[in-house]
Design a protein that fits this description.
Largest sheet of chain A: 2 strands, antiparallel
Strand content of chain A: under 5%
Number of helices of chain B: 23
Distance between the termini of chain B: 58 Å
Radius of gyration of chain A: 18 Å
Number of strands of chain B: 2
Order of helices and strands of chain B: HHHHHHHHHHHHHHHEHEHHHHHHH
Largest sheet of chain B: 2 strands, antiparallel
Largest interface: A-B, 45 and 52 residues
Radius of gyration of chain B: 24 Å
Shape of chain A: elongated
Oligomer: heterodimer
CATH class of the largest domain in chain B: Mainly Alpha
Structural class of chain B: mainly alpha
Strand order of the largest sheet of chain B: 1-2
CATH architecture of the largest domain in chain B: Up-down Bundle
Helix content of chain B: 55-70%
Number of domains of chain B: 2
Number of strands of chain A: 2
Shape of chain B: globular
Structural class of chain A: mainly alpha
Strand content of chain B: under 5%
Distance between the termini of chain A: 15 Å
Number of domains of chain A: 1
């Protein structure tokens, strides 16, 4: 497919979306689950703290939400830029 | 009906089902053999991917590792699920748009280099074969334990079953078989967990029970667990123990490895449309999360149950006498995976952390002369229903589930290996004019060959059962993932960059693993130990992330120092970036 301005815009929108999703991905796992856990230790969750919950439950739930959000947004972007499968 | 007959019945019935499906769905053409004619619905594909992904490591081993270590092993949970985000956002839709069958095919075309394709084949085969060896070992152990046959025959029966449906069925057989296996394994994992969660917390959902109050003591379950493990000198369950840097790198390695393992990626070639590839990754994670959200609860509750079994009157009182030990302990003693050694000759089972210096005084005051109980971490999930006194059919179901997990992964990996050999090596390199029938024959020969090799090594494990999985992930992370990602997101990375990047990542990672685990895993040849690694706190299992960085770095530098990729490659990259024009199949390339 030839390079058209429309494609470039589509790709830029995709990269923007991927970047936002990956920032959240890293924040909940490496951030809340590991590196920022000491900062979250004040928030009690069932006998432990929020960081522990993110490491064993929360990050997985956020991962799920991210993938479905991305799939929904991208499929919408495909149609918006007219590059979806007919 | 005794336990042995029940096990036989459950395992036998599930196997008859898998083989039946494989025969019913026998593949005819090459396109069907590899990719099931791209006619698989995202939900079905997600379920099969989940079965493919969750091996004996997830089902049998992971909860036990979490139970005995606590928070630090959360890396497994985040790593083995977080990789799906990378897959869905960075790889799956583009590889589906590209529309070929195998991972090396993409690398060879995108980097316009047969050398790149061959390097990718080597990476794929090394990672997959090592992974299969671990699975075959698991299959052998599980079969021999539950069918009460020798390890040799356990492995032979397992190899025969894998051979039947992987070789005869190909991808389509594997896909539907794996759907059946997913249902068996998730049921087997969830039912005992629900029972145990109800017993301990009154909450039927294990993931919620983990953060609920412990009914017997009235305090939160995790607080109770922290208390009793520390009473026995063990590390606090919910606290971080090891190096933070190592935990971050280990988690990252598992994530990147997940997105780089060929048998998972190959799944996304089999959905009808690009949009479906995106949904497929999400559905796969839904089905995986059902097990992964339950696993930490299984681990914590099993640890608590185990301590309560040994210290029925609380950790401040004396433990139970060896002569009064429960039936499940006697059963597992036969396997040698649970042992008792009466160090102070008082006939009681003292179980505590005899490696803790700060606990030594307490132990001495209580007249303890060393921990007397040794529990292999890998038996925890299988023994869990027995520890909790659940009915015999639940124990039999867990046996069938463990075997489903190990077999489904072995079959998926074998398919990836056979594809690489018949499609990439023989059709792509040695004999491009091979007929479709000939290619299919080679795929089956490669599969049979891989089974023989894996069974042989599974019979005589070179002493690296647990490390095998780490090696497979490290290698996939360091070699395959970076090449795929750069192939899609960079128009500048060229053939030389990709080849040198993959080789650098692969070789450095292999070296680091061999230095810590022994050359080719031969015992006694290691120069370092994971307890005191070569580079600061970075263990060999965590090195895949560093290997991936090296791969990216080398590819970038080499590409920028050499010529730009030709125009048709730039056009190819442009075309895979947009979904429009994705064909139904590309068998006639």
């Amino acid at each position: 497919m030839a390079e058209t301005p429309s494609n470039n815009e589509y790709w830029a929108a995709n990269i923007r979306l991927v970047t936002i999703c990956l920032i959240i991905w890293a924040l909940v796992s490496f951030g809340f689950g590991i590196l920022l856990r000491p900062m979250l230790s004040g928030i009690a969750v069932g006998g432990t703290d929020l960081g522990f919950w993110f490491a064993q439950q929360g990050s997985i739930l956020v991962f799920l939400a991210l993938i479905f959000f991305y799939a929904w947004r991208m499929n919408k972007l495909d149609r918006q830029y007219g590059v979806d499968e007919e | 009906m005794d336990q042995y007959t029940l096990n036989l019945l459950f395992v036998g019935a599930t196997f008859a089902l898998y083989i039946g499906i494989a025969i019913w769905a026998r593949a005819g053409s090459t396109s069907e053999f590899y990719a099931a004619n791209r006619g698989i619905h995202p939900v079905t594909n997600g379920m099969a991917t989940a079965a493919d992904w969750m091996s004996a490591a997830s089902f049998i081993s992971m909860a036990g590792l979490i139970a005995f270590t606590g928070y630090d092993n959360s890396s497994f949970l985040m790593g083995w699920t977080g990789g799906y985000v990378l897959l869905a956002l960075l790889l799956a839709p583009y590889l589906r748009k590209f529309g070929k069958f195998t991972v090396p095919e993409f690398i060879g075309d995108r980097f316009y280099s047969p050398t790149a394709r061959m390097v990718a084949v080597v990476c794929l085969i090394v990672a997959s074969v090592t992974y299969v060896i671990g699975q075959m070992t698991g299959v052998g152990v599980a079969f021999s334990r539950f069918l009460e046959v020798s390890n040799f025959w356990g492995l032979m029966i397992g190899a025969a079953v894998v051979f039947c449906y992987a070789v005869l069925g190909g991808m389509k057989g594997v896909t539907y078989t794996q759907v059946a296996q997913y249902i068996v394994l998730i049921t087997a994992y969830t039912i005992p967990a629900v029972f145990i969660s109800l017993q301990l917390t009154g909450n039927p959902i294990p993931a919620l029970g983990l953060f609920s109050d412990h009914t017997a003591s009235g305090v939160p379950l995790l607080e109770r667990l922290d208390q009793v493990v520390q009473d026995l000198g063990f590390a606090e369950y919910t606290a971080a123990q090891g190096s933070t840097l190592n935990m971050v790198l280990f988690t990252l390695s598992l994530m990147i490895g997940t997105a780089g393992l060929p048998h998972v990626i190959i799944r996304f070639f089999t959905v009808p449309r690009v949009a479906d590839a995106r949904w497929s990754a999400g559905w796969a994670l839904v089905f995986i999360a059902l097990l992964y959200l339950t696993a930490p609860a299984v681990g914590a509750m099993a640890r608590l149950n185990l301590i309560d079994t040994v210290y029925p009157n609380g950790t401040a009182e004396e433990p139970i006498a060896y002569d009064e030990r429960p039936e499940w302990m006697r059963n597992w003693e036969i396997t040698g995976l649970l042992t008792f050694n009466d160090a102070n000759d008082d006939g009681l089972i003292q179980w505590y952390n005899d490696g803790s210096a700060s606990f030594a005084d307490t132990a001495e005051a209580r007249g303890w002369e060393g921990s007397e109980l040794t529990v292999n971490r890998d038996i925890l999930v299988l023994a869990n229903p027995e520890i909790a006194n659940l009915p015999g059919w639940v124990i039999a179901l867990v046996a069938a589930g463990g075997l489903a997990a190990a077999l489904s992964t072995a079959a998926g990996l074998l398919l990836a290996i056979s594809g690489a050999i018949s499609h990439d090596l023989i059709k792509g390199q040695l004999n491009p004019n091979i007929s479709e029938k000939g290619e299919l024959m080679w795929a089956r020969i490669a599969m049979a060959g891989a089974i023989v090799v894996a069974t042989y090594l599974g019979l005589n494990p070179p002493g690296f059962a647990a490390q095998t999985v780490a090696l497979a992930f490290g290698l996939a992370a360091a070699s395959i993932f970076p090449a795929l990602m750069m192939g899609i997101f960079s128009k500048r990375v060229n053939n030389k960059g990709a080849v040198w990047g993959m080789l650098a990542g692969l070789i450095v990672t292999l070296l680091y693993i061999f230095l810590h685990k022994g050359w080719f895993f031969i015992p006694g040849t290691a120069s370092f130990d994971d307890a005191d690694p070569l580079l600061g706190p970075i263990k060999s299992t965590s090195f895949g992330a560093i290997g991936a960085l090296i791969n990216f770095g080398v590819a970038y530098i080499v590409s920028n120092a050499t010529e730009e990729p030709p125009q048709e490659i730039v056009d190819l990259v442009e075309s895979i970036r947009v979904p429009r024009g994705a064909g139904a199949a590309a068998a006639d390339h």
